[in-house]
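Handout, section 4.2: multi-component inputs.
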Amino acid sequence: MESVRPRLQLDLPPAADEESRQWLRSLRAEGAQRDDAVARLHDLLLRAARFEVARRRPTLPHLRGGDLDDIALQAADDALVSVLRRLDDFRGASRFTTWVYKFALYEAAVKLRKRSWQGREVPLEPESWTVLSATGLGPDDEVEQTELVQALQDAIAELLTPHQRRVLVALALNGVPIDVLAERLDTTRGALYKTLHDARRKLRKHLEERGFTLDILEEANR
Amino acid sequence: MKRPDLEQALGRLLGPADPEVSCDECFDQLDRYVELELAGKNVDTLVPGLRAHFDGCPACREEHESLRALVGGDQVV
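Output:
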């Protein structure tokens, strides 16, 4: 006969610390105990969402305090839904509180990026190639860098698919936040980043095959 | 190269050279990464591919910085 084990014990990740396991027990309980745990979880998520809003506030001068409070509350609400839906994904690789914080920070960050671009056109074509101009380089650098920049511009124009080119230009050249572009193109951050990644790999391979040395760029990415 | 803006533009266009995880994998590993990082562990060996992804993805990088600041003890409002 198949043994029946209580779900509470079965699903508690062995790696989790006691406080995290207590969170899981409470959230999987019924009645008042669960209601209380959900309320405490929402408080935790709201504090994390407000933390993110406060961090970004200096870059959002056009948003009023009430708007920011609303964004934090909406982020906490959405994060609560995500956490409760994905409770079984928690494996105890971190504390439960750290695990849930990331949901609130993510929701708040995405909402703030979208709000800051609300009503703005999302440029999908190069607004300017001037940043890739080689002017201002020293004489020793100028020839090589002019060639690199020209080869890169040619590769973007000729090697990439139209979708790869639009995504690369919007994200990497025009500075459109990835969540804003995902919303405008009705796709996801993950799908867009995959497109960006594939485009970058194609360009790197093309330039390296033509003898350009790209090592110097690694520090610029940091 | 002596043009920081040109270096940065080329860096954004060409992305990180090292292998990197996807945005979804980054999100899945982010809490573990931050706790190991704050504990002073060799996090880029233990959780490979995230550092390169932060270099290539500004959104995930910002969320990493926020989680590290929050868990690391910056004041919660």
